[in-house]
What does this fold into?
Amino acid sequence: MTTPQHGDERAILRTDGLTKRFGGLTAVDDISFRLPAGEIRCLIGPNGAGKSTFLKLVTGTHRPTEGTVHFDGEDVTDLKPHVRVRRGMSLKFQRISTYRELTVEQNLRVATQRIHDGRDATRRIDELLDLIGLTAEREAVAGSLAHGDQQWLEIAMAMATEPKLLLLDEPTAGMTIEETRETGELIQDLVREGMSILVVEHDINLVRQVADRVTVLNQGSTLMEGTVEEVTGNEDVKRIYLGKQAEGTA
It folds into this structure.
């Protein structure tokens, strides 16, 4: 297993020996991970590699069997998910979970009310609508939006709390090639504004577009970590992941 070498003093997110067992199944196996502040990290691997379980451990949806999670210099292993959100962590889920019967603005107001009210909330909503290009759809019912627009709305909802760390679980699933490229540009803009971002993603083109570094998981463990070029050139990664993508089974 490759152990990340980034210094802890710069890590916005750190896990040590993180392990999760479900009965006799070990879904996440002794992962020690470092994400430096201001970095876009992509987390890739075949289906069943442990990627989504790892995110759930980071956000507190699952409690680890062993190991610890540190966020922004604080041990958050025992903190509830909503407390981690207040500390500055936010997650966009793999499945779209907007309030389909509410308007775009109402969805964003629900998300922003955790930290804003009144004019501050309206100003933040205006900023988010402009950022995702949905100002004209402000009064549209969320469930009526095209799939890509619903994905962007949910990203905006995750950003509404102005997190230090944004976790994105397959944010471009179901998007067109052009929508995926635009999502990559959005992710890069957010990092320039001061966020750190961890992206679980299957689309290797998005990974190439945005990733500063890539972590590869396989069978619950870290297979390797490196630049996009290092990862995509690795024979083991080609065998277990990139080859499966080419076959259409990733």
About this structure: Residues 177-192 form the longest helix (16 residues). Residues 101-162 form one domain. DSSP finds nine helices and ten strands in the chain. Residues 1-7, 246-250 have pLDDT under 50 and may be disordered.
